[in-house]
Amino acid sequence: MVKKNPSKAELETELRILRQQRRAGNVASVINNAIRWTGCGVIAYFLFKAIDSLSGQTTTADIGIGLVGQLELSDVFAILFGGGGAVYGARQKSLRQETVERLQLRIRELEENEDGSRTSSGLTPRGETNPEDI
Asked: How far apart are CA 87 and CA 85, in angstroms?
């Protein structure tokens, strides 16, 4: 329960505690960023060393670099967006099929309650065409 009129000593104590918390948060933030950027630096160093050890040698990396060097920016964007679109579409298809499979039992029960003489469409539980129809 908070007092309506805290004393000066209580206010000073609260202010001291808040300042300590703020300092601790700032120190934690600096440490967090130091760890993050040190990690990035270490990764960059090891990538440099890996590439440096291959310099002056003919490897399969030359073939890959040659192919990448011939690509233009528009080609890179086309590959990225085309591949991303294909991955997105495949994921959406699998999500839709999982949803259909999860809901199909309930839908079938509701349809049978509404019309008991209703016949099945022959679709699989995932909503795909019956393999016998192909």
From this structure: 5
